[in-house]
Amino acid sequence: MKIVCDKVTARGHGMISARHRNTIEITKDEYVTERGTCIIACSADKALKDLKDDLKRVLKNNNTVVVIKVKCVDKVEMILCRGSDRLILTNDRKIVVRKSKYIDDATLCIESNKGASDLDRVLISRICMGDIVEILICAIELENIT
Asked: Could you report the average pLDDT of every consecutive run of 10 residues in the chain (146 residues)?
């Protein structure tokens, strides 16, 4: 078993609604519009391209479980999803967590147990105040079970 983690620091924004049912996005962009219903944080210090190479290697495995911890002020949310050997991980602006199996260059992980609308509303209210959002991404590569 191999575990690799990386941390992303971002900010909240008053326009964050976190209403999307199927995706969660963290962006390097400094702004959020009404159409960005999946965005939970902006002004991120990293996008997919910037994550540790070791983490990206572990993410590109069908036997990888991904745990994402989102913290803002005193509220914490945990998200579970999985890696895939089809991940591209090259986007230089954003990180996207998906409930579906859809993959593009911004996809961090698939088959998530939460979309933006599933996140705790108290957490989202803290994020809307513009506070710092800390995102810890941990990938756990499980060995084949036979």
From this structure: 96 95 97 92 98 97 97 96 97 98 98 98 95 97 72
Using DSSP's 3-state secondary structure scheme, residue 71 falls into strand
Contact (Cβ atoms closer than 8 angstroms) between residue 131 and residue 12? yes
Q: List the domains of the chain with CATH numbers.
A: 2-141 (2.60.120.630)
Q: Whole-angstrom Cα distance, residue 120 to residue 81?
A: 17
Looking at residue 6, its amino acid is: D
**Whole-number Å distance between alpha carbons of 25 and 112:** 12
Dist CA 99 CA 82 (whole Å): 10
Q: What percent helix, strand, coil does the chain show, rounded to 5? A: 15, 40, 50
CA gap 52, 58 in Å, rounded: 10
**Taking the CB of residue 131, how many other CB atoms lie within 10 A of it?**
15
* pTM greater than 0.85 (yes/no): yes
3-state secondary structure 19-52: CCCCEEEEECCCCCCCCCCCEEEECCCCCHHHCC
DSSP 110: B
